[in-house]
Amino acid sequence: MDSGSPDDIEQHLLHTLQLDGRAPFSQLARTLGVSEHTAARRYRRLRGLGPADRRSTQPRTAGAHPLAAAPALRPRRGRLPG
């Protein structure tokens, strides 16, 4: 896993969170086909990435939640099933 950008599972996780940002880890895990632990770990990793992989050029406001700009994130084309 590249430490600087989301992988396929994380891209799918971002897409899923864009559809339902309040989905529990159990639901995210089922959707992603991974364990709850893996879904939670990947979520925490994405939160730790901060604004580095965002398409938005807006700087993050001090104290703002790192995934507050999740709608500005875009999955890579051809990476999600459907």
Write out the CATH superfamily name of the domain at 1-51.
Winged helix-like DNA-binding domain superfamily/Winged helix DNA-binding domain
**Overall pLDDT metric:** 74
The major sheet is characterized as: none
Q: Radius of gyration in whole Å, from Cα? A: 12 Å
Count of alpha/pi helices: 3
Q: In terms of per-residue confidence, which ranges show pLDDT below 50 for 5 or more consecutive residues?
A: 52-62
CATH class of the domain at 1-51: Mainly Alpha
Our estimate of the beta-strand percent is: under 5%
CATH architectural type of the domain at 1-51: Orthogonal Bundle
**How many runs of DSSP E, i.e. beta strands?**
0
CATH topology of the domain at 1-51: Arc Repressor Mutant, subunit A
The ordered H/E elements are HHH
Derived from helix and strand composition plus strand pairing, the structural class reads: mainly alpha
Q: Characterize the overall form.
A: globular
From the N-terminal CA to the C-terminal CA, the straight-line distance is 23 Å
Q: Short description, anyone?
A:
The chain is an all-alpha fold and 82 residues long.
What does this protein look like?
Helix 2 (25-32) packs across helix 3 (36-49). The protein has a domain at 1-51: Arc Repressor Mutant, subunit A (Orthogonal Bundle), CATH 1.10.10. The protein contains 3 helices and no strands. By secondary structure, it is mainly alpha-helical. The protein has helices at 8-19, 25-32, 36-49.
Keywords:
single chain, 82 residues, mainly alpha, Arc Repressor Mutant, subunit A
Topology, element by element:
Blueprint (H helix, E strand, L loop, with lengths): L7 H12 L5 H8 L3 H14 L33
